[in-house]
Amino acid sequence: MYARIITSMNNLRLRTKLFLSFGCVALIPVLIVGVFLTSELRNMAMDNALKQITANVDRVKKRTGELLDVPLDIAYRLSNDSRLEEAANHRYVSVYDVVQAYWNYPDFREFVRLYREISSIRLYIDNPTVLDNWEFLQADETVTHEPWYRTALAQKGMVCWNYIRDNRDGRYYLSLIRKVNFFKQRTSGVLVVNVNTDRLNGILNQESFETLIVDENDNIVASNRTELLGQTLNDLNFKAESAAGPGFYDVSIDGKPFTMLIDDWQPGGSLNSLRIISIFSVESIVKEPNRIIMLASAVILSALIMAILLIYYFSRLLTGRMLQLSKHISKVGSGNLGATLVIDGKDEIGQLARQFNHMVRNINDLMSEVQESNRQKNAILLKQNEIKFKMMASQINPHFLFNALESIRMKAHVRGQADISQVVRLLGKMMRKNLEVGNRRISLQSELETVSCYLVIQKFRYDDRLAYELHIDPKANLVQIPPLIIQPLVENSVVHGLENRIDGGMVRVDIRIEDGLLKVQVSDNGAGISKTRMHEIRQMLESKDDYESNNIGMRNIHLRLKLTYGPECGLTLASQEGFGTQISFEIPLRSDSYV
């Protein structure tokens, strides 16, 4: 998969790659960062709005609680006022007595005058001798059937908050409703304290978000939008995902998204609760972030367009020079070596152009040298052919030598000189093998035939002075080796090791296969080699000086082994003066060559 992608990329034009690289390196990261920052900016704006609306609701709750503490305190004081009990339960005999009693109990009026947090106070009682006025009212049948009235009588003095209509002026108020027990008279009444709606709305008017106070029946009792007073939540035409309890909710009002915070609240430990609702438009919150985002998007888009234009310009500048270089390379490829590329600049393309011109000059020089070399080579070949022709004219035919040796062998055999006949036959066999030697490899068995011929001839020469042993692993006979790498070692042992010993000596050839290696050792018990001479021989073996390639000797064998099997496969010499010499080497059984 990765290889296919690389291949596809390599097939694209350079200009396309530049645009793709720009998209990967600049465009995509900018888009990712832009989307991330946009999302974060919107989230930050929403988070700030949520924190602000939470703080607003807490502030409204605190200030409204301070306002509602006033009617709570008044209700508590009135419920324990003995003068109110006397005025509400006294059986009056005349209208004058009633009016006089009202003038003697001005507390309701005083509370309204002293505390702007309330609008009015009234007490519903069951006393047929009192007259209905703005403060003491008979609980008629209409009132007694009101849910708030029945709820108040059913509770033992607990406070209720309801949004009810005041029959005296026809307006709706958030009212504190409480049952007042007159223990001495064993009667009761229902106290209603109307909260000042203007003061309540004044608290909400200081809030930046739309804020409502709603009773348990979803009646809007206060709002910083006066047109909403008296309506219910259902009249607002909003759809909420879920508004069962306190918390944040996503709502839709007239098809637009809003966020709503609901906070339940029971002021003064009342029987029922009020809800403070704050609503803000999502569009109004994200309006400023959206403006910033649009401005940033315009700036980014302008920068991207400018970057694309610059990349297009630079890509044309770059690809134009590359195309010019490609055309000159095509000219050189077609054989026009006189093409010269002129590209200004010190960048990589300019450097490449200079290297191209240098390469063309080198090719021209090289072709001139090759032509001169070919001319000289042809001249040398003519000279060599002339020399070979002259040598062939005076060369002794090798077949003549083989035939002459065969005639000598037959004469010796006829005259009963079998040993001479055998030696002549072996000599002819050795000469024929040496003449047939080429660069190809031969089997170890063939090499050992040459070694045997040589040892038999030398045995004929030295007689009892020469003894030899061949210890050959049968599995090694078919191993392919370079020709003439063992016989010269045997010859070296015979000539240099035994020739100067009067009593002669022993030459031993050990060949075995061990650990995947062919191990060859040629040893003798001759005169040995002195340390000085051994040092000279080792220096000669490792010398890098040129030598005649046709010289069959230890250095020749040493170099051939290293070139064929590796630098670790050369000859190893061990000798002690007066005790003999051992020459050995190890070569792998692999069929491939080192070089």
From TrEMBL:
Q: Where is the HAMP domain?
A: 316-368
InterPro entries given in the database record: Bact_2-comp_sensor_kinase, HAMP_dom, HATPase_C_sf, HATPase_dom, Sig_transdc_His_kin_internal
Classify the main location: membrane
GO cellular component terms, A-Z: plasma membrane
Q: Which domain of life is it from?
A: Bacteria
Q: Which GO terms describe its molecular function?
A: phosphorelay sensor kinase activity
Q: How does the entry describe its membrane topology?
A: Multi-pass membrane protein
Keywords (A to Z) from UniProt: Cell membrane, Kinase, Membrane, Phosphoprotein, Transferase, Transmembrane, Transmembrane helix
Pfam families the UniProt entry points to: HAMP, HATPase_c, His_kinase
Localization recorded for this chain is: Cell membrane
Q: Give the stretches traversing the membrane.
A: 18-37, 292-314
Instruction: Output the PANTHER family linked to this UniProt entry.
Output: SENSOR HISTIDINE KINASE YPDA
User: This protein is called what?
Assistant: Histidine kinase
Species annotation: Paenibacillus riograndensis
